[in-house]
Design goal:
This protein is 40% helix and 24% strand. The protein has 10 helices and 10 strands. The protein has a 10-stranded mixed beta sheet, with helices on both faces. The two termini are 18 Å apart.
């Protein structure tokens, strides 16, 4: 697996790099590419000098980070690069070249879901990326993956190959997969896409129907804590799961309280 990980040297982005490199170390035969972006809008000579200073410092910081990550994950090949470009467009452009299987970002603020829904770099990347993206909250440390949740709904996944990454991760980590669907009181019975059963036939998996308790994040957090879930995943449809659960939520502040890494799988 080859992973692109943008870093800005904040604690959140460094934590994301540490999280993913440890997962890759467990998976084996993986590569991690760290990339940092310097973006200065003005091009006067004074600003060019400042840019050179920033790039010089970034090179030193990247080398230090690479050394730290190599000590955590000796089985992972780690490379790095620095670009003078706007992060949003540059991350998407790199990810969509076909060289990478996954993009990993840290999620600033309270949660991964908040970062995705509130006009951040992560949201832009998710909406334009052709490959999966994981957003990792800054307070979450990697402790292995033994239980993974995938949210499912009544929308047919036209190309089940969109779920390939989650299947591959479950296979390599021997993780249990929990397929969850959140319903409101008195909501009509839900029928899962039968193709999902076939696609995951070689995995350990189970379906769980969750009745909403006050709000979506409270429901998910309680379920994940109770079952020891370490990663939440979802498929990004055109009218996606995030948009639907926002419509069911009372306030956005309640929605933005998920507490675990979020893997978004674009429907191919």
């Amino acid at each position: 697996m080859k992973v692109l990980c943008p870093v800005d040297f904040s604690e959140v982005s460094i934590n994301a790099a540490k999280w993913i490199v440890q997962l890759l170390n467990n998976i084996g035969q993986s590569e991690l590419h760290l990339t940092h972006f310097v973006y200065i809008t003005r091009r006067a000579s004074m600003f060019s000098s400042i840019e050179e200073l920033i790039i010089g410092r970034a090179e030193k910081d990247l080398n230090l980070l690479v050394s730290e990550l190599e000590s955590l994950a000796p089985n992972v090949s780690i490379t790095n690069s620095i670009f003078s470009a706007h992060p949003k467009e540059a991350i998407v452009a790199q990810g969509n070249k076909g060289q990478y299987d996954l993009i990993v970002t840290g999620s600033t603020g309270l949660t991964a879901l908040k970062n995705i829904t509130m006009g951040s770099v992560t949201e832009f990347v998710m909406n334009h990326s052709k490959i999966p993206i994981i957003a990792i909250p800054g307070n979450v440390e990697y402790s292995g993956l033994s239980k993974i949740a995938l949210s499912v709904d009544d929308e047919i996944i036209e190309r089940l190959s969109s779920l390939a990454l989650i299947r591959d991760i479950c296979v390599t980590t021997d993780a249990m997969l929990y397929l969850i669907h959140i319903t409101e009181e008195n909501e009509s019975p839900f029928e899962y896409d039968p193709g999902i059963d076939l696609f995951f036939r070689d995995l350990k998996f189970k379906y769980d129907r969750l009745e909403m308790i006050k709000s979506v994040p409270i429901t998910i957090n309680k379920y994940c804590h109770k079952n020891g879930i370490e990663l939440l995943s979802m498929v990004h449809h055109k009218r996606n799961w995030i948009q639907r659960i926002i419509q069911k939520s009372i306030t956005k502040s309640e929605l933005f309280n998920l507490e675990l890494p979020l893997l978004v799988l674009p429907e191919l």
